[in-house]
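USER: If only I could read backbone structure tokens as easily as an amino acid sequence. It would mean a lot if you studied the pair and described how this chain folds. Here is the record:
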Amino acid sequence: MARQRVHGPRPHAGAAAGIDRPLVRRIARSARRLRRGLSGREQGRLAGTRRGRTIRRRGQHRNRRTVLFRRRRAGDRVKRLLLAGGGHSHVFVLDALARAPLADVEVTLVSPFDRQVYSGMLPGWITGHYAIEQCVIPLAPLAQRANARFVQAHVARLDLAARVAYTEASEPLPFDVISIATGPVMNLDAIPGLREHAIALRPIESLIRAWPRLFAQLVALAEAGEDAGTVTVLGGGAGGVELAFAIAHRARIACVPARVQLVTGKPGLLPTLGEGVRRRIARLAPARGVRLIEDDAAEITRHTVLLADGGEIASDVTIAAIGAAAADWPREAGLAVDERGFIAVDDRLQSISHPFVFAAGDCASIVGHPRPKSGVYAVRAGPPLARNLMRHLAGKRPRRYRPQRVALYLISTGPQHAVASWDGLSTEGRWVWRWKDRIDRRFVARYAAHEPAPATSPAQG
């Protein structure tokens, strides 16, 4: 007896960011094949239709999301997909699963936080441009729409032989396929005293918890007529630059006489970007009230930062934005890693040592395609990761992905002003900030509301 073919309405992806119409169609097609365990050609012969045709029920609108299903046959084996981490790339995967639910795949999302804070909007939250609710994507509702179970926990250990991940509470999370997008961590032992006397930018939630209290202390000192002290930011990358400029601007508009200094490290200011944008930021820093110190931090104490050249600077509040480091548990599990400890994946985003493991974003490095650790590349990896997970679960070979060579950086400088950098070119102005603001707001708001994603991916910074 022929199987009954029942389909929901065709998905609409007209405004999708990074997930275009052809990609959504490919994902939906892979989902249909997975449900039936047949190739596209076999499906066509069985149903007497061309491959990939969708039949809509009478009276249903085509803009609703696809719902594909069939009766599960006796003996069908449910595959288990574990999404480890709530990073940018996994937002795209969850969105794809919400558009094309998989009947024979159980999906679990595990993340230590119930929301993803978009790092590019964090400086705007510090300056007061945004409420924190405007900067976050709630993960639990997004997982629910994707028919995924949400577990709020850290992944602490991975047993690749048994295909089980364990949380810090030793809760087992079995899987057949695992995708890792946990983002970077910060090496708190990189500088003596950092763990005890500094606030780390990663995880972002730690800074979000600490900043209101720290700023209230600065305001209280100013109201008492005392010196508000010195805030030191460690790290000369885009994240450190934006953080220092944001703190200086917030102090200025609150009439808090705090001094802000940015210790860039020996590589200097924005070492991976062009000379033009570095000159612009160096010119703006004194005007914004940010002192630049091009040296490495050698040690951090309660009220000072010791520099590599032997100097010492006062620091009442020290915030570390020193760049991405790799977590230990992937390497300890036996996954192949690069020289810095990041998960080594091929151009299909599969582990080069374990093909049932996928990884994307700042926790991974694509062999042969080295790129800076940046949110831009994590966002861009989302659509190919979603596509390749679908293909792998359907028993098909994942497709190759080549990350973009150049990324757009939009770096906010405190007030409603930003600097743009693209492949050695740079410009600046209020219009650049409005551009960045529009991109970031639209991206976060649409994923938070689970609307179609915007046409432009969020800009770095």
Confidence is low (pLDDT under 50) at residues 1-19, 34-72, 451-457. The first helix runs from residue 21 to 36. The CA atoms of residues 188 and 195 lie 5 Å apart. The radius of gyration is 24 Å.
